[in-house]
Design goal:
Elements: H1 3-47, H2 49-58, H3 66-78, E1 86-90, E2 95-99, H4 113-128, E3 132-135, E4 146-150, H5 154-221, H6 226-254, E5 262-264, H7 266-284, E6 288-294, E7 301-303, H8 305-321, E8 328-337, E9 340-347, H9 375-386, E10 390-397, E11 401-409
Helix pairs in contact: 1-5, 5-6, 7-8, 8-9
């Protein structure tokens, strides 16, 4: 993907994030207002019974039987509007009538056992919540003749749910907003990363082309004598280094581009990388040996060979750097398991504490005195983002060594 496309993608996401926060804030506020109004209207309907009863009572003719009027009002006006369960019991709290419960209205003793259990459990729960009214003939009479047990109305349930609904909505709103911010920041980092990589590759191009040209000029002017042949050998070494720099520039140029995978022998790539370092080990240290154990000689995997080789070079260089003042060996093991290829790279270097296992792959994080801490970050990006694999610190112990694991899918 080109940096221009990444920039456009970041701008689009930034705009979407602004729209999200503005729209989300408005919708959240409107949602709370609507929900609150619904609850308030339900409360009004519940309490409307009292003024309605009062108005009818005031306008009632004087010759009307008050007891009959109240009973009729309860049965016709109050009871149909009740949406919560009611259970009537005797003084011993034995149920004999119920409303708004999906159980047949027959004598309690005639109910199925499971229905009796449901009603009995509801009475116990209502009693535990003190949701009951004792019925007496008068305030002076202490004897209780019956109990009215009642549950929560829909309005009460809505009131109880209101803070939880609000918390969930706010949490989702904040979470999605934070995710959007993280995504935009990650895209911006990608833009910087890709731009830096491509600019580095571009800046390498001109001086490398010039160096190649000067090598050809000097090579053409050297004589055939002994000194000339020695100079030509040195020029060939220089040409090899220039080609290597060209390859490094090419690798940086691939960052952010669409990968073109091809079936490759990972065994051969690992072997070539190890041989490259073995030729240079005497210049670094004559105390380090690299061993390679492979079970994938005949396997081919779809990958970008240049980038995978770059990854292995960074990994091995990191191992060598951690062992500069030590004797020991670096062991590389490759094997296949469950349609995945595993590469274990173990050194006997300075190691690291467990808290560094994930941090070590972040840009700028390093346990070396010098360096930008980009080698393992590059390896992480190549393996996980480009090849959809996994890279991690398998195990490490301070002053003992570290084992890295690379997992690449074979499909």
């Amino acid at each position: 993907m080109k940096s221009g496309k990444l920039q456009k993608k970041a701008n689009n996401r930034s705009l979407l994030l602004k729209v999200y926060f503005i729209t989300g804030s408005v919708l959240l506020l409107v949602g709370f207002i609507l929900f609150t109004n619904i609850v308030i209207n339900n409360v009004k309907q519940d309490v409307q019974i009292v003024p309605d009863l009062y108005s009818k009572f005031v306008g009632m003719p004087t010759d009307v039987n008050l007891e009959h009027f109240l009973f009729q009002y309860f049965m016709e006006e109050i009871l149909p509007g009740i949406d919560y369960p009611i259970i009537l019991t005797d003084s011993l709290k034995a149920p004999f009538s119920w409303e708004n419960i999906d159980i047949p209205k027959v004598n309690f003793d005639e109910l199925e056992t499971r229905h009796q259990t449901i009603i009995t459990n509801m009475v116990k729960k209502m009693e535990a919540k003190r949701s009951m009214i004792p019925l007496k003939l008068s305030d002076e009479d202490d004897r209780i003749y019956s109990y009215v047990f009642y549950g929560d109305s829909q309005t009460m349930i809505q009131l109880k749910l209101m803070p939880y609904v609000g918390m969930v909505l706010i949490f989702l709103y904040v979470f999605l907003g934070m995710f959007g911010v993280y995504t935009i920041k990650k895209t911006e980092r990608d833009i910087l990363w890709v731009g830096l990589a491509k600019e580095t590759a571009h800046q390498f191009g001109t001086p490398l082309s010039s160096l190649s040209g000067w090598i050809d000029v000097i090579h053409s002017k050297t004589g055939k004598d002994k000194e000339g042949k020695e100079l030509q050998e040195m020029l060939e070494f220089m040409r090899g280094d220039v080609e290597r720099l060209n390859k490094i520039a090419s690798r940086f140029g691939k960052v952010g581009s669409i990968m073109k995978f091809q079936p490759c022998s990972l065994h051969k790539i690992i072997q070539e990388t190890i041989e490259h370092f073995e030729r240079r080990l005497p210049a670094v240290s004559n105390k380090i040996a690299i061993t390679f154990e492979s079970e994938i000689e005949d396997r081919k995997i779809n990958l970008d060979p240049d980038l995978i080789k770059w990854t292995l070079e960074n990994m091995l260089k990191n191992c060598i750097d951690s062992m500069k003042q030590r004797d020991g060996s670096i062991g590389v093991k490759a094997f296949s398991q469950k349609n995945k290829t595993y590469i274990h790279i173990a050194d006997e270097g300075i190691g690291m504490p467990k808290k560094m296992y994930k941090k070590i792959f972040r840009p700028g994080v390093t346990n070396k005195e010098r360096g930008w801490g980009l080698g393992l970050s590059l390896a992480h990006r190549i393996v996980e983002e480009y090849h959809k694999g996994k890279i991690r610190v398998l195990e490490s112990e301070v002053d003992v060594g570290t084992t890295f694991e690379i997992v690449l899918p074979e499909v």
